[in-house]
């Protein structure tokens, strides 16, 4: 059917379709340049304790920024002030809670925009990669979320938050989870789940990124290991593969005009721009409310 339609279409229509495919093909690269990196999203989610916001940012930004292959951005460079950058002191902003609420409203709107756009591309056009399906653009977006999750694993191997005593915050491992499942005494209770959910919600919607005692959040850089280097390189290659896959899927979209393709690009850019503004604002807050610590004792990091 596709071959029949294209064979009977005029030269002008074929030129229009070809130009639309070119515009859609460069869309993943354009929004990757404008988007955020996995390191920046992980700083907001893990160090800033805004895990739900970080997950929403990953879902709303389909493409991921990367500088070059086999290069992992140094975490302590992210929070360094630029010469012309202005600090945002959350302790002096009376309506910081309003901006926190606005962040969730905007990022949910960005997710809705991307999800609706992916569905419309699948239903109202034909993708030659798999013409019998409507979910090819959605697969590209979901792989972007998986890439951010992989980036969080790599980030956790390089940066760790510290507790109030300056020690590494231990995280649950696979062995500890299995022991908890076997031992009935360690099973979670309703009260424990309620208090844990309450603390998580408080941290997620807290207007100031502080710890329980109102002190600055602390984090420490861990020396690079061989496993970290391998996973960081693999993540870099996977990000490039993700951009190539998006280029392949979007450039294979047929029966869409140049004006519609330009609208698709604009809507993707809008969602990415919203995510970028939120990340930049949160990092500006963390420049003031986060304290960098360099620990000389790394045995705790290895044990955890």
Number of strands: 5
**Bulk shape:** elongated
Specify the structural class.
mainly alpha
Mean pLDDT: 77
- In whole angstroms, the N-to-C terminal distance is 58 Å
Question: Radius of gyration from the CA trace?
Answer: 22 Å
Tell me the series of helices and strands, N- to C-terminal: HHHHHHHEHEHHEHEHEH
**Order of strands in the sheet with most strands:** 2-3-5
Percentage of residues in DSSP E strands: 5-15%
Percentage of residues assigned to helices:
55-70%
The total count of helices amounts to 13
The number of domains is 1
Please outline the major beta sheet. 3 strands, mixed
Low-confidence stretches: 172-177, 294-304
Short description:
The chain has 304 residues and is mostly helical. Helix content is 63%, strand content 6%.
Describe the structure.
By secondary structure, this protein is mainly alpha-helical. It has helices at residues 2-7, 11-25, 27-34, 38-47, 51-60, 75-78, 96-124, 136-158, 174-182, 190-205, 226-251, 258-289, 299-303, and strands at residues 126-127, 159-162, 217-221, 253-254, 290-293. The protein has one domain (17-303). The chain is built from 13 helices and five strands. The protein is elongated and about 65 Å long.
């Amino acid at each position: 059917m596709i071959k029949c339609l294209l064979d009977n279409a005029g030269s002008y229509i074929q030129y229009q379709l070809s130009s639309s495919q070119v515009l859609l093909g460069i869309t993943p690269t354009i929004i990757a340049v404008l988007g955020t990196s996995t390191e920046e999203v992980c700083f907001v989610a893990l160090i800033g304790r805004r895990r739900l916001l970080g997950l929403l940012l990953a879902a709303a930004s389909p493409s991921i920024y990367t500088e070059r292959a086999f290069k992992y951005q140094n975490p302590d460079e992210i929070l360094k002030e630029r010469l012309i950058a202005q600090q945002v002191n959350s302790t002096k902003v009376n309506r910081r809670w309003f901006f926190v609420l606005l962040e969730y409203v905007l990022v949910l709107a960005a997710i809705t925009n991307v999800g609706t756009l992916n569905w419309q591309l699948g239903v109202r056009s034909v993708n030659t990669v798999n013409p019998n399906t409507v979910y090819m653009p959605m697969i590209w977006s979901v792989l972007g979320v998986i890439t951010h999750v992989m980036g969080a694993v790599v980030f956790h191997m390089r940066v760790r938050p510290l507790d109030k005593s300056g020690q590494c915050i231990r995280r649950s491992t696979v062995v500890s989870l299995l022991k908890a499942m076997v031992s009935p005494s360690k099973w979670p209770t309703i009260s424990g789940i309620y208090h844990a959910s309450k603390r998580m919600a408080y941290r997620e919607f807290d207007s100031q990124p502080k710890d329980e005692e109102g002190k600055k959040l602390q984090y420490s850089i861990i020396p690079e290991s061989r496993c970290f280097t391998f996973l960081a390189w693999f993540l870099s290659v996977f990000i490039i593969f993700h951009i190539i896959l998006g280029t392949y899927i979007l450039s294979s979209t047929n029966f869409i005009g140049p004006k519609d393709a330009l609208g698709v690009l604009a809507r993707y850019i809008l969602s990415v721009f919203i995510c970028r503004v939120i990340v930049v604002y949160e990092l500006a807050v963390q420049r003031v409310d986060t304290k960098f610590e360099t620990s000389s004792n790394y045995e705790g990091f290895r044990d955890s």
